[in-house]
Amino acid sequence: MKFISDRDFRDKSAQIWRQLRDEREMVITSNGKPVAILSSVCEDNLEESLKAIRQARALTALEAMQRSSIQAGTDRMTLSEINEVIKSVRRKRAK
Question: Which of 23, 75, 83, 86 could form a disulfide with 69 if both were Cys (CB 3.0 to 4.6 A apart)?
Fold first, then answer.
């Protein structure tokens, strides 16, 4: 996978768009750190591509929440404990 600085992307965008057809995916970096992914699509598969990206993001978020829950020890809460936390939060919001 090809990495491109944000400066090169700005200065050589026409060349990069042409290369994207062959590369299929490129990573845009800013100060050496990845900030975006360019992915080639066509009209025929645009919706499927967007769906796949959204599913991958959702899965990543879910995995992060699960890791956070394990670290906090909340993965071992009972249903009644969870319901009590929900009630407590709702009471605070109602005030």
Answer: 75
